[in-house]
Amino acid sequence: MNSNGIHYIHNAPESIVSKLVKRYLLSIDRKTSLLRIFETGKFNHEPAPIPKKLDKYNAIDTHYVHNRPVWVPKPRGRKSDNYIFFSHGGGHLNNITKHHWNMIYFLQKQTNATFIVPDYPLLPKHNYKHTYEMIEDAFNQVVAPLNPTNLTFMGDSAGGAISLTLAQILRDRQATLQPKDIILITPELDAYELHKDTPKYEKHDVMLTGAIFDLISHHYVGDCPRDHFLVSPARGNLDSIGKISIFTATHDIMHPYARDFKQRLLHENREFNYFEYPKMIHVWTAITFMKEARHALRQMSNIINQSK
Hints:
Blueprint: E1 7-9, H1 16-27, H2 33-40, H3 52-57, E2 58-65, E3 68-75, E4 82-87, H4 98-111, E5 114-118, H5 128-143, E6 150-156, H6 158-172, E7 181-185, H7 198-202, H8 211-221, E8 243-251, H9 255-267, E9 272-281, H10 291-305
Parallel strand pairs: 1-9, 4-5, 4-6, 6-7, 7-8, 8-9
Antiparallel strand pairs: 2-3, 3-5
Helix pairs in contact: 4-10, 5-6
């Protein structure tokens, strides 16, 4: 830790489980799956069902905003003032998966946090405008009435972009309720252009390919300037939005964006946390049976629990 926060680089050898996960993802050609979704039109718009263990652990309320569910799992019989507004990843075109629910369950066991999980609109029919119309209304209608004293925004991949963008929207709206922490997991940070270092990382990435960048960006960005914070949140004004914590993996084409974002935060002398996991893949934290995932999730839990 230094005066600007925690700056951590994981130094344990890569686990056998991590290597096996990569081998499996290579065997199913996961890297090009987003491209195939667009080619075939077989979009994964149905949310994964809430697992029985999560249902048993929680009393779950379901609200509807713009005719879409917002799930609020609250741990049964456990008092906590931790609240987490969680935006799932999926390239703006896939819905929440069982891996996201497993990650939520693991974090709940560590924090007793109540989660608020919006089922936001997805590509190809919806773009950034529809996303933030629904997300902001979900926040105002579901989160704000709870009046949480310890609120964290959290998101992975595309959900990381949503989390960082929403914080800037609320700041600009001069909203009374703001997050204390913003936890970004291998986040999508900048839709302006494909990073010049993408080839360096793409050869190790078993989840994503640079070819998907312009395809998704074209549909998601729509008429928004690509350097606007609504689609490139790392380029926005970062004043008064809560403390940022970045979790990044070096076998991920999102990593150079996270690295650049870190340099901006350092240059502006902002307090933030940075956690780098060598050889980990995009959103490795959702593979909760991996020890590297559990290690990172415990670090997130510490941030949440210490934010009071």
